[in-house]
Design goal:
Elements: H1 2-5, E1 12-15, E2 35-38, H2 40-54, H3 57-76, H4 81-106, H5 112-123, H6 125-128, H7 142-158, H8 164-173
Length: 182
């Protein structure tokens, strides 16, 4: 991955939190690397699953705060980056503050799925809030993930094709159809 992005003028890289990206990100006190912009859909999913599994009122409260940010994103869709940033600063920043406060307040007494969700989100919080500081960054990576899903599934399904010729047939028959129109 580092070789692919070497020399790129990319300032932010939106990711799902996979540890393989960590080598690309800026280290404290350096001017090299990119900033991480993490995906709120991944954090939200952890609290949503906790809410379903345990009926946790704390998880439910955090899901509601995250929904407020998504409502802002819906209103910001199609706006120029400067206006999106301004709207996010005004409307999403208070929700982010509320989320962090709830996470820090609940962390010491949390256990199980709730503890995992809180730890995941707190560890990634700086990267999760990058979207409010730059109107070009999306709140989540779902659109990109939908576009590459067919490629990933084809790769996974053809791993054990049996032989080289069978792999060629897989590559021809199951290639993604066209360019993603997400």
């Amino acid at each position: 991955m580092k070789d692919v992005l070497d020399g790129a003028s990319t300032r932010f890289l939106a990711t799902d939190g996979h540890g393989g990206y960590n080598q690309l990100f800026r280290k404290p006190g350096t001017n090299e690397g990119m900033y991480s912009a993490r995906c709120w859909a991944h954090a939200r999913r952890k609290f949503f699953e906790t809410c379903l599994a345990t009926k946790s009122p704390q998880a439910n409260k955090i899901v509601k705060l995250i929904r407020k940010m998504y409502a802002v994103e819906k209103a910001a869709r199609g706006l120029p980056p400067e206006e999106r940033e301004k709207l996010r600063q005004e409307k999403s920043r208070p929700a982010l503050t509320g989320i962090r406060t709830e996470l820090e307040r609940n962390a010491p007494k949390a256990s199980g799925l709730m503890k995992q969700a809180i730890n995941y989100t707190l560890k990634a919080f700086d990267a999760l809030q990058q979207f409010i500081f730059d109107g070009r960054i999306e709140i989540e990576t779902n659109a990109v993930e939908r576009c590459i899903r067919s490629i990933a599934l084809t790769k996974k399904n053809s791993l054990f094709a049996g032989n080289h010729q069978a792999a060629k047939v897989w590559a021809i028959l199951y290639r993604p159809s066209g360019i993603c129109s997400c």
